[in-house]
Every structure is written in C-alpha cells, then in structure tokens.
Amino acid sequence: PLQPLQPKTVPNRLRTSQRKPRDPQMPRSLIKEIFRHFVKMPVTRDAFKIVEKCSERYFKQLSDDLEAYAHHAGRKTVEAADLEVLMRRQGLVTDKMPLNVLIENYLPLEYRKLLIPVAVSGNKVIPSK
After folding, report:
1. Are 88 and 94 in contact (CB under 8 A)?
2. pTM
3. How far apart are CA 13 and CA 77, in angstroms?
4. CA–CA separation, 63 vs 83, rounded Å?
5. Contact 93, 101 (CB under 8 A)
6. Over the chain (129 residues), what is each successive 10-residue block's mean pLDDT?
7. How many other β-carbons are positioned within 10 Å of the β-carbon of residue 115?
8. What is the rounded (10 degree) CA torsion for 34, 39, 42, 45?
9. Contact 103, 112 (CB under 8 A)
10. What's the distance, CA 65 to chain centroid?
C-alpha cells in the first residue's frame, strides 16, 4: 500500500530579519549644517543632540499639522496653501512679512526661482502653474 507523502517543514527565514519600520529622518549633517549657519559659533555634542531631537519633533509636528489641513479640506495631497496657512498660524508669515519675502531672505537663488513666479519677455511667467 502507498502512503501519502508528508510535506517537509522548511524553516521560515523571513522572521530572522524582521525590523521595526523606522520613520524617515533628516540627515544629521543637514541639521548640523543649518544650525551652525544660524548660530555662527561652535556647538557641543550634547547641545547638538538636543537640537537634533527638537528638530525631529518639530518636523514631525509640522507634517502632522499639514496632513490635518489637507484631510480637513478633503484632499489627500498637501498643497502650498496649506503650508502658508500653517506658517501664518505659527506667526512666520504676517501681513508685514509675506511668504515671498521669507523665501527671498532664507533660500538660495535656485530655490527662489522655483518658488516665486517671475515675468519674463514674451509675457510668460516662470514657473508656470
């Protein structure tokens, strides 16, 4: 009499490399470079760790707020208007300090060209919407 074949048990190799998914993080070098630019003096490692932790919390809160604004408007995409409303609520954008002035003061020329519309010859506006 024939006996049915028993399937062999294969060890599950996928479980060995299971890691908890991490939130995306800004590079430490970028945070350090930005902070050094504005501080203009040496920073100790302990102070930098605190700055890094604070910036991580700030950007997490910023992204949560932007997500809430888009969700409230019934959209799945965050738009520039959401960011402007958030910056206005934070007091960064006011009637005396519009968003374009902040862009001109703090961003390099290549980013300014992308964000601020400029009229050129031929009655064209760059960047076009």
Report:
1. yes
2. 0.62
3. 38
4. 10
5. no
6. 65 60 76 85 89 90 92 92 91 90 85 76 67
7. 13
8. -60
9. yes
10. 12
Helix/strand/coil (H/E/C) assignment for every residue in the chain: CCCCCCCCCCCCCHHHHCCCCCCCCCCHHHHHHHHHHHHCCCCCHHHHHHHHHHHHHHHHHHHHHHHHHHHHCCCCCCCHHHHHHHHHHCCCCCCCCCHHHHHHHHCCHHHHHHHCCEEECCCEEECCC
Q: Which amino acid is at 67?
A: E
d(CA 105, CA 34): 15
Residue 9, amino acid: T
